Amino acid sequence: MTKDALYDLAFRYKKTKLWTHTFDTQVFAVRTDQNKMIFVCIMGRIAEHIAVSVYPEDEFYSYYHFLDADPEFGIVLTPDMFERLISSSCIQCSFENKDMLDSPDLDEARAYAKSHGIRIAGKNAYPKFTRFKPYHYPWSVDEEHDLDLLAAGLEAAIALSDALKSNSDFHAQFSQVDARTGRDVPVLAHTPQGYQIAGTTALPPRRDASYPSGNYSNEVLLRKIRAKKRGKGAIDCCIIWLNNPVQDNPGDAPYYPAALIAVEESDGKVMSLSVTRDYESGHDELLSEFMAALSERKMRPAKILAHNDRTFALLANVMKKASIDLGLESDLPLLEEAILDLYHHVDTAELDDAPDDFSQMEKGLSMMLSEMEAMEDGLLKYVPEDIIDSLSELSSVPELPSTLKKRIDSLLNRIVGIISGGPASSNRAGDRRSTGGGGKSAASGSKKRNGQKTGKGRNRAEEPLSYVISVSPYTGCYRHIRVSADITLDELHNIIQDVFAFNNDHLYAFFMDNKAWSHWDAYFSPHEGEERSAADYRLRDLALYKGQKFLYLFDFGDEWRFECRILRAVTEDTNDYRILRSKGEVPEQYPDYFGDDDEYDDDEYDEEDDLFW
Question: What pTM value is reported for the model?
Answer without folding.
Answer: 0.58
